[in-house]
Structures are given as C-alpha cells and as structure tokens.
Description:
It is a single chain. It is globular and about 35 Å long. About 25% of the residues are buried. Helix content is about 45%, strand content about 10%. It contains 5 helices and 2 strands. It has helices at about 25-35, 45-55, 65-70, 75-80, 85-95, and strands spanning about 1-5, 10-15. The longest helix is centred in the middle third of the chain and has 15 residues, at about 45-55. By secondary structure, the protein is mainly alpha-helical. Keywords: Cytoplasm. InterPro entries: DsrC-like_C (IPR042072), DsrC-like_dom_sf (IPR025526), DsrC-like_N (IPR043163), DsrC/TusE (IPR007453).
Amino acid sequence: MDTLTINKSAIKVNEEGYFTDPSQWNEDIAVEMAKQQNIDLSEKHFEVLHFLRNKYAEEVPLTIRKVGKSGIVDIKEFYKLFPGGPLKISSKIAGIPKPVSCV
C-alpha cells in the first residue's frame, strides 16, 4: 500500500493509485487528482463522480455502459470528460477502487 499526499492529506492508495479507503475522498482532493490527469473538473464531471461513488456505495458493479445510461452523460460524453480510459480515470478521481470491468 502506498500513500499520496494531496492538499496536506495522506491518502492511502493501492499500487495502481486507487483509494483503499473511499472515506478519505473529498471534492478538493478530486480537483487535485484531476489536475494530475490534465482534467479541469466541471459541474458535469462532479455529477459523474458522485454517481460513481453512489453506485459503489450501493455495491453496483460499474461499467462504461452503466455510466452511459445514467442520464448524466452518454458514453461519448463520458469519453470526452475523462479521455484515455474514462471509467478507470473517473473511478480514480472519484476515490473508489478500480471497477472489476476495467482491465
């Protein structure tokens, strides 16, 4: 287990950089993590991040298709918001573990 320091907070992450304790997440940390991915978070980004966190809390397996059917964004918009691996990147920024559907 590794530790990331973001905004003076020590965040516990696994070897791939995913939170091991989602309760450590907050929106300020998300903004900083997104900057590392060259993403400036908008209100739409946060809607997706909160959707992912809520589904994770409900123990719903996450897939790109489920996000695309969320009513928040379609799949094309999801790729635009989080280019280069939308579910992997958004999950990391949302402070949840890597979804099983991600390779």
